[in-house]
Write a structure and sequence with these properties.
It contains three helices and 14 strands. The chain is mainly beta. The protein has one domain: Acyl-CoA thioesterase, double hotdog domain (Porin). Strands 1, 2, 3, 4, 5, 6, 7, 8, 9, 10, 11, 12, 13 and 14 form a 14-stranded antiparallel beta sheet that branches. A hairpin with a 2-residue loop joins strand 1 and strand 2. Helix 1 packs antiparallel against helix 2.
């Protein structure tokens, strides 16, 4: 089917000064979300926090295996600050923390998102590793999907900073929505993306990929994002096979299997606040 080429724009953030344990960043228009012109999409701040966690006293013998992100409120498209720390030290298992702060209406910085990540010591288990297709069948390859020009339906910003290739829309019968995405911009300035950052640049879109509700009539904001990664992704494309479920009282959830072109690499889950527009 081919792919739509979207013009690559600014990075999500530009780096500013570091003061009193906080690193300053300025959000660019590439972070603008689909619900409001003045608020960031969840993926850029999630990726920025993951980048900060990966860069906190990095270890060659360990990697992040799980991240829990709590979104504490709308994240404005403005200056923001990040700090990181070790919550629970350890040689084989350690828990890292990160916080994102942004100014309120009075210019006072307050926490708008927090993330915690387990960083585990690595070990060679290649001899007993499950083959990529052992649990879930692979997705149709990105070049075989249907190109999707997000700008025809949604606010330009984050959604046009990703190249999308749609495989399947979700159905009422329970079939998940399936889409590939690859970032067209960097996270910070011209700094390269790590495999985990590339994954997080796409994965917060799972609730939209799996949504059966019409985005023109409904909103389904996520309050959190939990991601487990059993294998770091390879290559540029990240695939999402997502199911969004709506309950009878305005609360929903999204579960997703995350892919690279070789097969599954992890899972994600989100809690949703579902409301009519």
């Amino acid at each position: 089917m081919g792919l739509i080429r979207v013009n690559a724009g600014e990075p999500f953030y530009t780096r500013g000064p570091r003061t009193e344990g906080w690193q300053s960043f300025t959000a660019t228009p590439s972070t603008v979300g689909v619900w409001s012109d003045s608020a960031q999409h969840g993926s850029p701040p999630a990726t920025l926090l993951v980048k900060a966690l990966e860069e906190h006293d990095p270890r060659a013998d360990a990697r992040i295996s799980r991240v829990v992100l709590e979104i504490l409120g709308p994240i404005p498209v403005t200056e923001c600050r990040v700090r990181t720390w070790v919550q629970r030290p350890g040689k084989r298992v350690e828990l890292l923390g990160a916080e994102l702060a942004a100014p309120d209406a009075h210019g006072n910085f307050r926490a708008v998102a927090r993330a915690h990540a387990w960083r585990l010591e690595t070990h060679d288990t290649a001899a007993v590793a499950d083959p990529p297709g052992a649990v879930h069948e692979p997705l149709v390859r990105p070049e075989e999907g249907e190109p999707w020009d997000a700008a025809t339906m949604l606010n330009p910003g984050y959604i046009t900073a990703i190249e999308w290739s749609s495989v399947r829309r979700p159905s009422r019968s329970g079939a998940p929505g399936q889409t590939w995405g690859r970032p067209l911009v960097k996270v910070v300035d011209d700094e390269p993306l790590s495999p985990l950052q590339r994954l997080f640049a796409v994965v917060d879109s799972a609730n939209g990929i799996g949504a059966k509700l019409d985005i023109r009539k409904w909103t389904y904001l996520n309050t959190d994002l939990t991601v487990h990664v059993h294998r770091l992704p390879e290559g540029e494309w990240i695939g999402l096979s997502a199911k969004t479920t709506t309950g009878p009282d305005g609360i929903g959830m999204c579960s997703c299997v995350i892919y690279d072109e070789k097969g599954p690499v992890g899972r994600s889950a989100q809690t949703l606040l579902v409301r009519p527009r």
